Amino acid sequence: MRDGAFFTDRTRALLVVLLAAILIFVAWQLSNVLLLGFGGVLVAVLLRNLAVGLSRWTRLPAGAALAVVVIASIGLGVAFAVSVGPRVAEQFGELWRTLPGALAQFRAFLERFDWGRELVEAGTGPRPATLLSLATGLVGTVFNALSDLLLVLVVALFLAADPGSYRNGLLRLVPPARRARAAEVLEAMGTGLWRWILGQSIAMLIAAVATAAGLMLLGIPLALALGILAGLLNFVPYLGPILAGVPAVLVAFAQGPTEALQTLVLVVVIQSLEGYVVTPMLQRRAVAIPPALGILAIVGLGVLFGTYGVLFATPLLLVAMILIRMLYVEDALGDQDGGGEPERDTGNRP
């Protein structure tokens, strides 16, 4: 009898391990789909919280408030496309044509110096052919990105319209005795993601406006396109601002080394203010993400999952930190005060 029980326990353990291995394998194969689903969750969190805020302010039902938010978002997008869309498209097209020549001019400038010539000859200097090959591959990527964006928006609309059904479905997978705590964890993750998205969106807007305005004041061409690019790339902390500064400096270098230096100073000042002043103020009530962990997460998930890993690395790290804090530090270790660390968000809505 005891041997039979041991055999049953051992068989059950093996089945659990086998099932876990299968789930990990399937998740790995469907990693892009899961990351897109997480992107849908981010958009749904944004839409739902905007709708809840509008509902509290206007006393509209939540569903009607969500419809107003969606229609207003579409209206703003259409208004932007009609008013400045043609100008933005023209500037991005000009930027696309300008960058190869700017790179060639920068390479010629480097070759005037011994160290620059060695850099170019070593193969680390910028080459127009490399940019052209990347641009060719990017054309196909744009179409895939548009279809993925449509998938994210559809998933987000369904999640935002009826979040309770999906939330209750997840809670039913948890043992009844732990469902109350699981609900607290889900609430904390939702609140943390909302505060991160809100802060990041405002930071992106500030970066776009400040970059475009600063470049216009300096007389740098294509300022509007470069500002929008800076705002979009600012979605990825740490790495995005660097990538956004490169085309701005190259376009400015086509005007002259002095303009390039001025643009570089402008980019550094804007990103320093955004990184050390604006973002900490906007996200001071969210879970603090150490910069070193953020950079490692972006690089690591980028290596594992490519572009989408880079895009969603920071919010995924945020979710992981909330899970570790609540389920391991607080529940498993019994450390409720964080060991004297600065106060963190507890998941309660303001």
Automatic annotation (TrEMBL):
Keywords, ordered alphabetically: Membrane, Transmembrane, Transmembrane helix
Subcellular location: Membrane
Keyword Transmembrane: yes
Pfam families: AI-2E_transport
Residue ranges of the TM segments: 12-28, 63-84, 134-159, 203-228, 260-279
InterPro entries found in the cross-reference section: AI-2E-like
Keyword Nucleotide-binding: no
Membrane topology: Multi-pass membrane protein
PANTHER family noted in UniProt: TRANSMEMBRANE PROTEIN, TRANSPORT PROTEIN YDBI-RELATED
Family that this chain belongs to: Belongs to the autoinducer-2 exporter (AI-2E) (TC 2.A.86) family.
This protein's name: AI-2E family transporter
The species this protein was found in: Sabulicella glaciei
